[in-house]
Description:
By secondary structure, the chain is mostly helical. The protein has a domain at about 30-70. It has helices spanning about 15-25, 30-45, 50-70. The longest helix is centred in the last third of the chain and has 21 residues, at about 50-70. The N and C termini lie far apart (about 55 Å). The mean pLDDT is about 80.
Amino acid sequence: MPRARKNNVVTMPKAEARASRLAAQPTVTDREIARRAYEIFERRGGAQGADLDDWLQAEHELRGEAAAERRA
């Protein structure tokens, strides 16, 4: 007996829908991240050698805030 064929087709969202959704999201710029990273650097007393950690922490904080704003 032949198998019945199932239609397992996945469709992708239209590019226009994705573009409009992305345009509506607030973005965090490198300049904002750099400013926040410098604040973190100063708060640590200006100790050298943790620039990447400062950047990543700043990026995490700012992107988290932007995501919370999108959910609100």
